[in-house]
Amino acid sequence: MGANLRGANLRGQHLTDANLTYQDLTGADLTGATLTRAILDMAILTGANLTGANLTGANLASTNLDQAEWSDRTRWPTPAWTERMRVASDRLPDGRLRVRPEGLSDTAPVPI
């Protein structure tokens, strides 16, 4: 079982290569965090703020991203993930994006 990091302020933290498998990061502030190559398998990021976060090369297998907010500066693991996130999100009035509540599956088809 993972740690409860609900609402944690991880703003700007360097979490490169961190193993966050099964971690509950509901509502966590990860604004500008570096999560390069982080393992977020089965993590809960519901409502997390990923604005400007760097998730390049991160493992997001089965990660719950419902209602997560992000921006055009957010770097997803791959270009396919970036496209998947754009399709699964709505733009907010302030320009950021929010993943729709129906969620996002890592097995969902990626538009080409």
UniProtKB/TrEMBL annotation:
SUPFAM superfamilies: Pentapeptide repeat-like. Gene3D superfamilies: E3 ubiquitin-protein ligase SopA. InterPro entries: 5peptide_repeat, Pentapeptide-BTB/POZ_domain. PANTHER family: BTB_POZ DOMAIN-CONTAINING PROTEIN KCTD9. This is Pentapeptide repeat-containing protein.
